[in-house]
Write a structure and sequence with these properties.
Elements (H helix, E strand, L loop, with lengths): L2 H10 L26 E6 L3 H11 L4 E7 L3 H18 L9 E3 L2 H5 L6 E4 L6 H10 L3 E4 L7 H13 L4 E3 L7 H11 L6 E7 L29 H5 L31 H12 L8 E7 L11 E7 L5 E5 L5 E6 L2 E6 L2 E4 L2 H4 L17 H11 L7 H20 L3 E2 L11 H4 L13
Parallel strand pairs: 1-2, 1-4, 2-3, 4-5, 5-6, 7-10
Antiparallel strand pairs: 7-11, 8-9, 8-14, 9-10, 11-12, 12-13
Length: 439
């Protein structure tokens, strides 16, 4: 990481009204790991993406995973078996039994021998876990989007800042060098004056909802399976009868827990769009969302949407299920498209361009996103997708979802994170939490 250029970029992008964390974070708490020791990590949420994160962290010799937590006990046990098998192969005896298994993340938050947590749970529980972890002195790798709502995301940011914690948001495309280069080309004027950015969140045409595992969303209530703590899975969300179609991978199609592809896959590309636009520490001024919604069943996020955002410099960001997957920057002299790890452009000369030493260089992505997090846990610097960046990217998605749900355009003040003079919209920036959950 190039400290000088990164610090200048961070400060240059700071927005009025937001107090940003110091670039070099406070030293770790007394008794915490030294730069030469292994980071002790607890994995909370070990399903699909959480399981992938667990395997990546296992491969980092600077990390020792000491706990696997999932409200679905068989998942936690399966993750623990993978962890113990990995470390067992490194042990002289060929056996290792050092991984705690639990369903309740609070047991791990209370432990003083855990340095960091990986949060791979559904969106609606990110904030309660991240805030508790930060208060207990733990660093955090939190899956995207950073939080369920604007208010919950801001609570994470402020708590991480107050307690001097490192947080990496799981928008891992920030650590792909080809994408960084594409954003640098845009920021350094290789396509002329930027006027439009198009984000496509769907792997298939118009795929606003893609239900997995054969469910329809019309399944009747059923008994909670043995080993599944459904009350803890619901967490702060409203109580509703259990059906398997509601949980695990399909939670993202229900507004009580997520916002569908607006913020699920969409936040990856909104994050890249914000990076290339230079707006990743601020936000739009105007949002106009149009969407179609299911008319029955438990899945209620948009089946299709087009959300148009306007920024202070006149640039439009169009986030739509009709757009090609990825992010496309359109300027007065050409275009650049980022998708699937590749960068394409309207002319070869754009891609063969060199970013000069006196031009803008974005933060280096020399490591994987997970390795960057561990680097920053050890050196106490801000990671590629730190909490404020995670909050701003997720907020763009939240604003679009609110506009779609209200069915009308909205004005936005990014510095204060409010809809000026709009009480109805402002109520949707947060949510009541089911007892006993609070932050």
């Amino acid at each position: 990481m190039t400290t000088g250029s990164s610090r200048r970029e961070f400060l240059r992008l700071g927005c009025r009204g937001v107090v940003l964390a110091p670039f070099i974070l406070p030293a770790r708490s007394p008794g915490a790991v030294s730069p030469n020791a292994r980071i002790t990590l607890a994995c909370i949420g070990t399903g699909l993406q959480g399981g992938r994160n667990t395997r990546v962290f296992l491969a980092d010799p600077r990390v020792q995973i000491v706990a696997a937590c999932d409200v679905d006990l068989p998942r936690a046990k399966a993750a623990a078996a993978v962890i113990e098998d990995h470390y067992g192969k490194q042990a002289a005896s060929g056996r290792f039994k050092g991984c705690v298994v639990t369903q309740d993340f609070r047991e791990l938050i209370a432990r003083k021998d855990i340095d960091a947590v990986m949060i791979g749970t559904p969106d609606h529980t990110h904030a309660i876990i991240a805030v508790a972890a930060a208060r207990s002195g733990k660093d955090i790798y939190c899956e995207k989007p950073l939080a369920y709502s604007v208010a919950e995301g801001r609570a994470i940011v402020e708590t991480v800042r107050r307690y001097g914690r490192v947080l990496q948001t799981g928008t891992q495309r920030r650590s792909i060098n080809t994408f960084r280069f594409g954003c640098e080309l845009v920021r350094n004027g290789r396509i002329g004056t930027l006027h439009t950015v198009r984000v496509g969140p769907c792997f298939g045409p118009g795929e606003g909802i893609k239900i997995r595992d054969g469910y329809s969303g019309h399944e009747p209530p059923q008994p909670v399976p043995s080993g599944f703590n459904y009350d803890l899975w619901l967490g702060p969300a409203p109580w509703v009868s259990y059906t398997a179609a509601r949980c695990h991978i399909n939670f993202r199609w229900i507004f009580d827990y997520a916002e569908g592809n607006i913020s699920d896959n969409g936040v990856h590309f909104v994050d890249l769009a914000s990076w290339g636009m230079g707006t990743d520490l601020t936000g739009p001024e105007h949002i106009d969302g149009k969407a179609t919604f299911p008319t029955s069943g438990i899945y209620d996020v948009p089946t299709g949407f087009t959300i148009t955002y306007r920024y202070a410099n006149g640039v439009q960001l169009i986030h739509s299920t009709s757009n090609e997957l990825g992010v496309k920057f359109e300027g007065s002299d050409g275009w650049i498209h980022l998708s699937g790890g590749a960068v394409t452009a309207s002319a070869d000369k754009i891609l063969t361009s060199t970013i000069g030493p006196d031009e803008l260089h974005l933060r280096s992505g020399a490591h994987t996103h997970h390795a960057d997090f561990i680097d920053c846990v050890l050196n106490r610097r801000l990671p590629a997708a730190h909490a404020e960046i995670g909050q701003r990217s997720a907020t763009v998605c939240h604003l679009g979802a609110i506009s779609c749900r209200l069915g009308r355009p909205l004005a936005w003040e990014a510095a204060r994170e409010v809809f000026p003079g709009d009480a109805e919209a402002n109520r949707m920036l947060s949510r009541p939490m089911r007892a006993p959950w609070t932050m």
